[in-house]
Amino acid sequence: MTDTPGPLRHSLIIPAYNEEAYLPRLLDTVDRARARYRSGPDAIEVIVADNVSTDDTARLAALRGCRVVPVARRVIAAVRNAGARAARGDIVSFVDADHQIHPETFNEIDRVLTDRVIGGTTGIRFERRSPGIACTYAMFMLVGMAIRGVRHRRDLSVDTGVVFCRRRDFEEVGGYREEMLFAEDVRLLLDLRKLGRRRGQRVTRGTDAPSIFSTRKFDTWGDWHYFTMPVRVGWEMLRRRGNTARRYWYDVRSEPRAP
After folding, report:
1. Domain 10-221 - what CATH class?
2. Checking DSSP bridges between strand 10-16 and strand 202-205, what pairing results, if any?
3. Could you write out the three-class secondary structure of 55-80?
4. How do the domains of the chain map onto residue ranges?
């Protein structure tokens, strides 16, 4: 590959609601990753799907050269899908506004997205550590291995970080499921896995470019909160309510500001 500008290859989609504190930090890391990309920064577009923010999120994104896509519906799957519909790159990838991506992110995606791979994630490392956070991460990895039925850490269906796949495959599976208030990212990977199985492809994890995962949810709710949340959310779903889910994923007014 050369360093000369070529066709648009990557579309990075960032869903954002009132993220003026965290978005600049993420975009700094995106700039570094674009500068390191072997096909040149012009092969990458950055789309901020602005979910009716009431702060300076949209203005900051525009000033940083991002394409801003307004999205009115307050459902994260719908926000991600709106960004993907505006994408022009061959590969779509998604990252939350409070993450930070690795400088080699786009090179790593190109490396792992071979003909035998339908999509995957970059994996993560947490911005801080604690026993509660470590146990939570281990729990989710065990769930991912159980769902997939494999033993290798690179072949998980439940994972996080920068999520990526080819745009045509994203469209074929129907994108993120907009009827889901949460876990839409898990569902997408499962849908990609199902499509890939028919073609002899797999969902995988990159090994060399983990993103930094924000711990602001742990800072707000406590480092062990995930262990009781499934019980609360499951009970509310049985009662056809979603108060905990909406407070946790959609009401960010009381969360800590970016460091």
Report:
1. alpha beta
2. unpaired
3. CCHHHHHHHCCCEEEECCCCCHHHHH
4. 10-221
Bridge partners of 48, per DSSP, are 14, 68
Question: What pTM did the predictor assign?
Answer: 0.83
The pLDDT assigned to 203 comes to 93
Tokens of 49: 């799907």
With H, G, I as helix, E, B as strand and everything else as coil, classify residue 84: helix
Taking the chain (259 residues) in consecutive chunks of 10 residues, what is each chunk's mean pLDDT?
Answer: 61 97 97 98 98 96 98 96 98 97 98 96 90 79 57 55 97 95 88 95 93 88 75 49 60 54
Strand spans (E) along the chain: 10-16, 44-50, 67-70, 91-94, 117-121, 124-126, 163-166, 202-205, 211-213
Residue positions counted in the chain: 259
One DSSP character per residue, 180-228 reads: -SS-HHHHHHHHHHHHHHHHT-EEEE-SS-PEEEP-HHHHHH-TTGGGT
Q: What is the pLDDT of residue 138?
A: 77
100 contact partners, CB below 8 Å, separation of at least 6: 25, 26, 28, 29, 127, 211, 212
pLDDT of res. 196: 96
The distance from CA 51 to its chain's CA centroid, rounded to whole angstroms, is: 16
The candidate with the shortest Cα–Cα distance to 123, out of 207, 4, 29, 63, is 207
